[in-house]
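Subgroup meeting minutes
Present: P.N., E.W., G.H.
Scribe: E.W.

1. P.N. recapped why we're keeping a running log of single-chain structure predictions: easier to compare across weeks, and new members can see raw inputs and outputs side by side.
2. G.H. added today's entry (186 aa).
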Amino acid sequence: MASEVSICNRALALLGANTITSLTDGSTEANVCNAVYADARDAVLRAFPWSCAIQRATLAQLSTAPVWGYDKAYSLPNDPHCLAVLDLKESSKYRVEGRNLVCNSDTATIKYVARITDPGQFDPAFVFALACRISAEVSYALTQNRSLSSDMWQLSENAITEASIYDGAEVGSEDITATLFEGARA
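Output recorded in log:
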């Protein structure tokens, strides 16, 4: 099962760097991994509607309506934290503004990408994509090699694309069109 340390060690191995025992072991490698891990994880989660991160929730309406444009405002979920809204059940017309969703619906039920912090819930292809992203983000800091850094960013993009293809294959026939569209929006 993946852990934050094992994912970072996979990223470091791609660079030929020393591995770490924890994100706080005091080494340069641990310090740079610790600095980028959470943001890299969230960026990869937002890159595609990964099945491991899809959640659904009915939102709480806020007491203050938007000043103009929409009739209602709803608070986005914090547990787990909403990284991206994929769909509003009640309407196709909505907008995310800050940590709120605004629309004209009397209720708001959403499908969203959640911040998943437990690496044990990640698909193996997602783990590799995240390791590649971390490797890209820390490569220059650890190697001062621009060419290697550029290669790592390309590997990261390719790994995310490949992982999204595997993930997208695991939807029912009625969701294939929607998933392909959602992937194109990411």
